[in-house]
UniProtKB/TrEMBL annotation, chain A:
The keyword Ribosomal protein applies. GO terms for cellular component: mitochondrial large ribosomal subunit. Gene3D superfamilies: Ribosomal protein L13. Belongs to the universal ribosomal protein uL13 family. GO terms for biological process: negative regulation of translation; translation. It comes from Jaculus jaculus. GO terms for molecular function: mRNA binding; structural constituent of ribosome. Signal peptide: none annotated. This is Large ribosomal subunit protein uL13m.
Length: 168, 196
């Protein structure tokens, strides 16, 4: 077991995840697996085998159901009367990155390593990512949800090929 | 495809006889009238308001199950469609996004409700960008930052935030999808979760 083989096995990867039209919970689940290193056969909690994950387009995430209005993020400033509750929509407008960040934070193991794993997570609201991070990226992970096609995204031939189910 | 300007007379529930067409022997349907639109032409001082019959698309012949009563049963689509099947849903909507009445389309009551629910979910997901509601004249819509959503059961403006989700054994769920589509065929082993 040479040091070169050890370095190669424990090298850190950089993964890219596109959050356009994706549910933030599923993005966070995939990201937390990669950040902990659970996808590696050499995983051990103490061996610092987590990878970097870059999530882009967090501004365009899609919640299922009415969660934008129903889901409430609570916090307390520590001062009396400082209990703050904001809906997901309000939080997303203030900070487009916060929802995915909180989702990943909640899915990581509640140990002291969590903070280092969060430092290895990079979130960007839109497509523009700094050049030095772009150079590091190794692989793009497949999106968890297949976004449905809008009516205007179907070609005229496909629309005509679809049978008309009724006539007046 | 969108149906152009369906104008109906105020007959509503009048039963005028059996439809002499493919299948449909159960429910009495109104005699077939084509799609029509109202055209307003301004000629200097005279305004001509004209009703014109637009080309009506014909139903595709030979459905797989001619014995069925409603179009969905005839085409064997009973538990097989969702909000994503825009090509099917667009056949039952008006140009500004509203549903067509049951007496015209020939759907059975439960399928009409399911299709209406799927159409609502598709509108909320933004899958019908060209079927937006008609605005009164002169009104320019303000561009608000839109949020992406899918499988929304309730209208976004009508929902209140859940401030307290409850204890670990008694959580209040957030509704996803619709209970009308509970019986849909699922090709993966996972059961449909109605509440997250």
């Amino acid at each position: 077991w040479s040091s070169f083989a050890q370095w190669a096995t424990f090298a850190r990867m950089w993964y890219l995840l596109d959050g356009k039209m994706q549910p933030p919970g599923k993005l966070a689940a995939m990201a937390s697996v990669k950040l902990q290193g659970l996808h590696k056969p050499v995983y051990h909690q103490l061996s610092d085998c987590g990878d970097h994950v870059v999530i882009m387009n967090t501004r365009h995430i899609a919640f299922s159901g009415n969660k934008w209005e129903q889901k409430v993020y609570s916090s307390h400033t520590g001062y009396p009367g400082g209990f703050r509750q904001v809906t997901a929509a309000q939080l997303h407008q203030k900070d487009p990155v916060a929802i995915v960040k909180l989702a990943v934070y909640g899915m990581l193991p509640k140990t002291l390593h969590r903070r280092t794993m969060m430092q290895r997570l990079h979130l960007f609201p839109d497509e523009d990512i700094p050049k030095d991070i772009l150079q590091n990226l190794v692989e793009e992970l497949p999106q968890p949800r297949k976004a449905p096609r809008r009516l205007d995204e179907y070609t005229q031939e496909e629309v005509e090929a679809f049978p008309r189910v009724w006539s007046p | 495809m969108a149906s152009f300007g369906t104008l109906l007379s105020g007959s509503g529930r009048l039963l005028r006889g059996l439809l002499a067409g493919p299948a449909a022997t159960g429910w009495f349907r109104l005699p077939a009238r084509g799609f029509r639109e109202v055209v307003e032409i301004q000629d200097g001082k005279t305004t001509i308001i004209e009703g014109r019959i637009t080309p009506t698309p014909k139903a595709t012949p030979d459905p797989p199950n001619p014995v069925g009563q409603c179009p969905i049963c005839r085409w064997n689509l009973k538990h097989k469609y969702t909000y994503e099947d825009v090509l099917l849903l667009s056949q039952f909507i008006r140009p500004h996004g509203g549903m067509l009445p049951r007496s015209i389309t020939g759907l059975c009551q439960e399928e009409h409700r399911k299709i209406a629910e799927c159409v609502k979910m598709a509108h909320r997901a933004g899958l019908f960008p060209n079927h937006r509601p008609r605005l009164p004249e002169g009104v320019v819509p303000k561009s608000k930052p839109t949020l992406n959503r899918y499988l929304t059961r309730w209208a976004p403006s009508s929902v209140k935030p859940i401030c307290n989700r409850g204890r670990r054994w008694n959580k209040v769920g957030m509704a996803v999808g619709s209970p009308l589509l509970k019986d849909n065929v699922s090709y993966s082993r996972k059961p449909l979760k109605m509440y997250h």
